[in-house]
Amino acid sequence: MEGTRRLAPSLGMTTAIIYLFSIIAVGMLIGAIRIRGIALGSAAVFFVALLAGHFQITLPSELTELGLALFVYSVGLQTGPRFFSIFKARGTAFLSVGLASTIAGAVMALLMAYLLKMPAHVAAGMYCGAGTCTPALAGVLDAVQRGNPTGVAPASVGYASAYPFSVLAVVLTVQWLPRILGTTARDAAARYLAEQASRNPPLEECAFRISNPNCVNMSITEFQTLHMTRAVICRIKHDGEIAAVRPDTRLGMGDVVLAVGEPDELAKLEHVLGDVAVEPMYDPTGNVASDLVVVSNRSTVGRTLREVQLWERFGIVATRVRREGIEMTPHGDLVLELGDVLRLVGARRDVMAAADVLGRQERRLDETSFIPFAAGLAIGAAVGLIPLPLPGGMEVRLGLSGGVLLVALILGRLGQVGPMRLYVPNAAKHFARELGLVMFLAGAGTGAGRALIPVLRETGPALPLAGAAVTLTMIAAASLTMFAMLRWNVLYAAGALSACMTNPPGLAAATQLSDTDAAALGFASVYPVALLGKIVMATILYVLLCM
Known about the structure:
Layout: H1 2-31, H2 43-54, H3 61-115, H4 120-130, H5 134-147, H6 152-180, H7 185-199, E1 204-209, H8 220-224, E2 232-238, E3 241-244, E4 256-261, H9 263-272, E5 288-294, H10 305-308, H11 310-314, E6 317-323, E7 326-328, E8 341-347, H12 348-358, H13 370-384, E9 388-389, E10 395-396, H14 399-414, E11 416-417, E12 420-421, H15 426-459, H16 462-485, H17 490-500, H18 504-511, H19 518-546
Antiparallel strand pairs: 1-4, 2-3, 2-4, 5-8, 6-7, 6-8, 9-10, 11-12
Helix pairs in contact: 1-2, 1-15, 2-6, 2-15, 3-4, 3-14, 3-15, 3-16, 3-19, 4-5, 4-6, 4-16, 4-19, 5-6, 5-19, 6-15, 6-16, 6-17, 6-18, 13-14, 14-19, 16-17, 17-18, 17-19
């Protein structure tokens, strides 16, 4: 008997894993089927899980929570580097979208509760399910437990009655958005990339002929100390011969130099050096190298370009740096990150020597820094447990997803936990996000599937229809705010709409519309507002209905 007791938990977990990945496999297979260009994608896992739950197949809640944590953590790490700058510039818009959806849904829930004479705990649970917000339900259950313990089960019933329709409605709406607005995902992606390019102008090359007497016989180092432009001079043609510039290279009248930088910065050089020269600056001898080097040596990560001293030690110029798909002009204060791609120009032997310092360890780019990765997850989970006081002595918590997302955004921006730097390859972020999503959907679906049919038998169609009305009201309020008032790009708005509904399957559908990060950025921008708004609003809704 003792041996049986020891073995049973192992068998139970093994069975759960078999169920989990069977549901995921079948769901993804069904989700790949397209009908008139529409596919459920990852959301199909939820509906397969609903069916499995109806037949009493269960999954441990810990698997569901782990999946949700991995999903939001990966989204936060992906968008963190740009989130705070965007929120600073457009924070009011994010608040408008998130709160419009949250408040409109609460008003409709109040109306449905009044018309259907719904108990307070049932209506509050229905509101949480209509917004697919499990952390909000946790807050409601906490409030119900303190005032009316018998209302805990009915609140969960209200949640389960509204949840499935909300998942399906958001996934389909996200896929239909481009058609509804009379555009295509491809056109929207082109506009988004153009907007990004306007904020981060692409770097260009331009050659200039020295005609300013004040620049003659000035060394490159002396010219740079004037700080007249951020463009970088990398080559010089003197007496018909092309060479890489070095710190002691001097400018001569009639020499032609090649510079790299943003258009505005290059225009400054024209005023300082001389007219634009239309001349080839390619060195046919091969003595001037222009190579891409990936920063992969951890001893250089976290140091600035000035500290690495590429110019002083090797006499080479870094003309471009690409990070997270964005190309920038290098400057001395630029802190090098693992995976940065530098364009180095100089004599071939010097470029190779600098490459030995910066890279030559590309295999490390496939390795995740697991210590800060795990520490960030642990800190995020702990943050989600911190109670936030409300008037009247009530408390709310961000929950697992809210705490983890908040910490992930900060980590994505800072790139480190204390002295430990965080690096997660893009492939690893994508894998963690997709795995976490389907694990969450499988767990949430089986949980809802066990309760769905009993709920429908008990309440009839009235409760699910009321939940559907709340869901559609939230979607409509968010859409009107994003498109009629703010004129957002449809891809960005698709991610933001998924965030308004705190709906991970919606984000999965939104990211499939294009290869850009617009949907993920929109999701991360609005999600904190929508999540906290629903947690607070659900509790307020319950209190108002009790009154």
